[in-house]
Give the backbone structure.
Amino acid sequence: MLFIDEIQSSPKAVALLRYFYEEMKQLHVICAGSLLESLIDKHISFPVGRVEYLAIRPCSFLEFLNGIGEDFDFDLVNNLNVSNVHNRVTALFTNFTIVGGMPAAITKYAVNRDVLAVDKIYETLLNAYIDDIEKYARNETIGQIIRYILKNGWNFASERITFDRFGNSNYKSREVSEAFHTIEKAMLLELVYPVTSAQIPMLTSTSHRPKLIWFDTGLVNYIAGVRESLFSVTDVMDAWRGRIAEQIVAQELLSCKWQVSAHRQFWDRPKTQSSAEVDFVIQYKNWAIPIEVKSGHNARLKSLHLYMEEAPHYSRAGVVATTFGECC
């Protein structure tokens, strides 16, 4: 096996992958590097049909349990058998929500179960991202906007955003859009757009305002300065007006997807003067399944019911919906 790290730094090495595939089939070649550079640097062209792509995501809750040595609870959660240990597993999930899914952060936390010990990890990661991404800005203005987003954009996690004057800035829509999409190519965030239909195929509507989802909840908590608020809440669903809960659910939905093209969607009702919105929609076989992130038994589910009224598979099957908060 041959492992090549930071392969995007060498266009010649990329070109040679074709010959490894054709002339040395017995040799397995694994390459790691920045997806951003692979997409933006026009001098690099990956051999079509000769390479397979794998997206590396932040860890899931199960991977978090494995990383901190909670093997017993790992097996219980994996087998959906947590009724007798619900409180303990919920506490572990809260810790996962605080720490996030970055492997270095989980490894550091596992030593003494100290959340504050991972601060240096977060700072190092953030500075590395800023240094890496701003190099690919088309001009100095885009570079400034990228830095602005990476400094202030975490405060808008799980919110629907507009590009024009984003975050009370004076930047124009087109430039902000370009900066966001540059960061998105590096997989540090996703602009999650809605679908307006409750049926398959789930067609994304890019004419609507997107929802900003960052790639890791631990970094959101730390950089946005809301981590301390999670220490005092009894239910993580209540923290930061429910936005952290929505962020961690979004992270879980993508954590097990290896496809680079995988993305998330939510539902926006396409009617005038209608504010109905379902947090996420996923495809399961031929069904478009809604996911609403709520807490408690008295949570209002008006939007979810409106979705179910419009979805033919719910009206036929009479499916009973359950909120994420009650499941956890």
Q: What stands out?
A: The radius of gyration is 21 Å.
